[in-house]
Amino acid sequence: MQELVLVPGKMTQEGSSDMDILFASAKGTGISGGWIENQQGVKLPGSDLLFESVTGRYERLLTRTTDGFPPGTYVLKYLQGGETKEYKPHPLSWTVLPRFPSAPVKMWDAFSRTLTVQFSPIPGAAVRYFLRLYNPNTGVLRKETFDTAGTEIREYVPDSGELQVMLVGDIREGDSLKARILHFFQPSPF
Predict the structure, then answer these.
(1) How many CB atoms lie within 10 A of CB 106?
(2) What is the pLDDT of residue 147?
(3) Which of 96, 116, 128 is nearest to 185 (CA)?
(4) Dist. CA 23–CA 112, nearest whole Å
(5) What pLDDT was estimated at residue 159?
């Protein structure tokens, strides 16, 4: 069973302007990497997928300023069993994608080591929400929570040190991921 994803998205970040994103991931027996190509078959700079040990997937998140990705057909090229294969989803567009309607709120209880993130739901879509915690110095994913349809996520964080929290809203149609909406909080000590 293989799991291939190539979707558009939007990203907000505390203290920064909004960005468009292109998210790709590949997981399955024999998959050993990949990259993203544009409509002309040209590899996008910085699009090599990297292995995330926390999720067991090869992933890449590309960011551009708003309207930085032209709408159209993008291709996920991936290596499986020594062969280059491709996954070509429907044409992608960033123009009608929603955002979090208001800034999510992050709270930290140092005594119980509980991280709480509260947010308003993304309107007009079936969305599953989860958190990703990164080391802000290396960009390494440290933890990913289970997904939920609720508007509050609580997570025990045993690790001490500085982390950057990302709230993810995956817009789904049935079993298919159609778009990814992100909010990055500023790095903070835990």
Answers:
(1) 19
(2) 97
(3) 116
(4) 34
(5) 85
pTM over 0.90: yes
Q: Which residues contact 174 (CB under 8 A, 6 or more apart)?
A: none
Model pLDDT, residue 45: 97
Report the candidate in 102, 133, 135, 134 with the shortest Cα–Cα distance to residue 118.
Answer: 102
Question: For residue 143, which amino acid is it?
Answer: K
Pairing of β 114-118 and β 75-80 = unpaired
> What is the b/e burial string over 159-190, where b = at least 16 CB atoms within 10 angstroms of the residue's CB?
eeeebbbbbbbbbeeeeebbbbbbbbbeeeeb
At 135 the pLDDT is 95
At residue 146, what is the residue type? F
Environment class of residue 51 by beta-carbon count within 10 Å: exposed (0-12), middle (13-18) or buried (19+)? middle
CB 156 within 8 A of CB 168: no
Question: Strand pairing partners for 118?
Answer: 105, 152
Domains of the chain: 3-87 (2.60.40), 105-189 (2.60.40.10)
> What gap in Å lies between CA 153 and CA 135, rounded to an integer?
20
For the chain, which residues score pLDDT lower than 50? Answer: none
**CA atoms of 170 and 147, how far apart (whole Å):** 9
In this prediction, residue 16 carries a pLDDT of 84
